[in-house]
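queue> pop job 88
queue> type: inverse folding (structure -> sequence)
queue> payload:
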């Protein structure tokens, strides 16, 4: 029997219409558009969608594709990319689950995606929209620039390596700060890495123009490359320059290469797709989806900082990651600042990743629901082209194809510590600037938390991004 929904404080199984949902078996006949599905209130519909998503994911994980198809048909009657928060999330998680099923037939999957066009201009645009709609990257840039400014005080030659150069605004702001230095600006060289030259070319023009305006000696060294294929020699690090490294939402992608290595070493680990702890009860007495998921969404399942660390493919050895971090350590930077998504999306099982992703993306979709109109085209683009694609990577993909392997701050601390880096506390002044920036948004949901000198950027009490600074241990 499917799991039962239990309203808080309810003792009778007939006390709520939600009990009726859980007692229904998913069958082909239920796939037709029953009127009661359309008449559900928003909260009831949201709860039922979660129930259906978990049911569908469980069927996908166990290979019961016929039942998964029935669940997908049910969800399609309720989900909507332009509806309320839960309807929107359900639309993208459903698409990801369907894509995972299609991958069981590689020929069919390739044929359906053969004419798909991915425009670089659209990708660049949606990243900019994300930057504008949310304060997360702005806060990360403020913290990063302040840490860099303090680290290079008095230095005459400064070299910044940007491991994912996609937003010139960060370095425009730094140029303005450096121009105001009492001792005058240093000679600045920025090495910018990105896999698309269409991103690097306008960035070079913008920063060169800005540096000329302030009369700052400036060089821009573009490198068109994926991070995993980066040739360290092209960084051209020189003796006598103060080296700083900035990584924004990029390092986690290297974990995909490690997954492939570990799969070859341990085939049994790659087949570890169970571990499904299905919910016994669900409650719906919260105001937002994020609150719903935080308050005992799944009885017996509570996302914990270590929940992803137990997975066979994400524990212990990280060959590509360790090699890359060791190479960065070998460059002896004065400072390295890392911004990452603070979520557990690198578990080995589908159900583990789906549940964790529901928590994280619930918070992100709640952000937009609280600050942007549902009819906003920009909102729709970010949800579909950015969040939707990330969800698809987390849910539908495996092996090297699964790039979105977000992990919690404590995992990064362990990893960086083991490769010779020492955590450098972010300054009080940097955190003060970050808090002021969040206050200027006029939305109480955005918060920052200090954790042993590192910063977690949150929606309500849910950490979504982390910023940490590192020095080489002597």
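queue> result:
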């Amino acid at each position: 029997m499917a799991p039962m929904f239990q309203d808080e404080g309810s003792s009778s199984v007939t006390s709520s219409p939600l009990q009726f949902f859980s007692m229904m078996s998913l069958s082909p006949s239920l796939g037709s558009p029953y009127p009661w599905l359309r008449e559900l209130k928003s909260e009831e519909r949201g709860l039922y969608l979660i129930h259906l998503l978990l049911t569908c994911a469980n069927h996908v994980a166990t290979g019961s594709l016929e039942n998964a198809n029935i669940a997908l048909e049910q969800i399609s009657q309720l989900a909507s990319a332009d509806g309320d928060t839960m309807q929107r999330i359900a639309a993208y998680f459903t698409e990801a689950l369907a894509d995972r099923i299609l991958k069981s037939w590689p020929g069919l999957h390739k044929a359906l995606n053969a004419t798909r066009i991915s425009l670089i201009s659209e990708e660049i645009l949606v990243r900019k929209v994300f930057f504008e709609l949310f304060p997360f990257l702005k806060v990360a840039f403020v913290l990063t620039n302040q840490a860099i400014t303090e680290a290079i005080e008095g230095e005459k030659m400064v070299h910044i390596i940007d491991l994912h150069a996609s937003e010139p605004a960060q370095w425009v702001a730094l140029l303005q700060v450096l121009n105001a230095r009492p001792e005058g600006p240093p000679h600045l060289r920025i090495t910018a890495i990105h896999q698309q030259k269409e991103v690097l070319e306008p960035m070079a023009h913008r920063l060169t123009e800005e540096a000329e305006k302030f009369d700052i000696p400036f060089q821009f060294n573009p490198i068109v490359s994926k991070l995993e294929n980066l040739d360290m020699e092209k960084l051209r690090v020189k003796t006598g320059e103060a080296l700083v490294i900035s990584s924004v939402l990029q390092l986690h992608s290297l974990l995909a290469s490690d997954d492939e290595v570990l799969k070859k070493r341990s085939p049994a680990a790659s087949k570890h797709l169970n571990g499904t702890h299905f919910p016994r009860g669900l409650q719906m007495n919260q105001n937002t989806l994020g609150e719903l998921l935080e308050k005992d969404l799944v009885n017996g399942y509570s996302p914990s900082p270590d929940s992803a660390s137990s997975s066979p493919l994400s524990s212990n050895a990280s060959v590509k990651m360790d090699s890359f971090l060791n190479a960065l350590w070998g460059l002896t930077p004065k400072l390295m600042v890392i911004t990452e998504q603070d979520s557990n999306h690198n578990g080995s099982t589908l159900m583990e990743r789906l549940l964790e992703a529901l928590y994280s993306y619930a918070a992100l979709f709640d952000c937009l629901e609280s600050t942007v109109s549902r009819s906003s085209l920009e909102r729709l683009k970010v949800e579909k082209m950015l969040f939707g694609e990330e969800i698809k990577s987390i849910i539908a993909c495996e092996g090297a194809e699964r790039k979105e392997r977000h992990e919690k701050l404590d995992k990064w601390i362990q990893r960086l510590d083991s490769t010779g880096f020492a955590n450098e506390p972010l300054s009080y002044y940097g955190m003060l600037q970050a808090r002021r920036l969040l206050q200027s948004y006029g939305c109480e949901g955005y918060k920052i938390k200090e954790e042993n000198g590192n910063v977690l950027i949150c929606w309500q009490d849910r950490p979504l991004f982390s910023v940490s600074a590192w020095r080489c241990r002597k």
